[in-house]
Design a protein that fits this description.
globular
């Protein structure tokens, strides 16, 4: 897999919603990341139909995208609106509250 510095990567962040019900949350998060205070985050939503989440993550890693945000089953009110942050370079998965994703991305994509 490619390990680009964040500034050279095709995108800093890839967003993946695991269900159609979470796509609106992914689009809201996208809008927050690209236009929020403190600078724009270069991100994209992988909304391809028929491609499994694991394959999307592997393909993002191969393209050199350093952070993948997965909005999955824990991204609901009952679970505290958690998302998974996949760090390709570190091989780590961290759960972060949806409201803190922008701050987390800014602190970990340098």
């Amino acid at each position: 897999a490619l390990r680009w510095p964040a500034k050279l990567a095709p995108f800093q962040v890839l967003l993946i919603a695991t269900s159609a019900a979470l796509e609106s949350k992914a689009h809201l998060l996208y809008d927050e990341l690209i236009g929020g205070p403190g600078g724009e985050v270069d991100c994209v939503i992988d909304d391809r139909d028929g491609v499994k989440v694991g394959k999307k993550i592997v393909q993002a890693d191969r393209r050199g995208i350093p952070l993948v945000v997965v909005l999955g089953h824990e991204c609901c009110e009952e679970a505290g609106w958690l998302v998974e942050m996949h760090h390709s370079a570190l091989g780590q998965i961290v759960k972060v509250p949806l409201a803190e994703v922008r701050e987390y991305v800014q602190n970990h994509s340098r």
